[in-house]
UniProtKB/TrEMBL annotation:
CDD domains: NrdH. Pfam families: Glutaredoxin. It comes from the Bacteria. This is Mycoredoxin. NCBIfam families: GlrX_actino. Residues 8-61 form the Glutaredoxin domain.
Amino acid sequence: MENLPLVNVYGADWCGDCIRAKSALNQFNVAFTWHNIESEDRAAQKAVEISGQKHIPVVTFSDGSFMVEPSASQIKDKLMQLGQLAN
């Protein structure tokens, strides 16, 4: 079985919401994989396929769910729900 990252973030370096999402994940000590939609092949297309829209960031979770432009508190709540938030 492949060991997939718990969290994936699709976004761009210039995106304020993306910076905030990554900062929140770092603050919560949650490992994530960053997918830069401007430099990673097919990352932009994948983000649209996941969310059905072109807004970023798109944050995916281990249960297959995703959030678009989530706040830090929304990310925290989801991670707590999944039992993935380190204390």
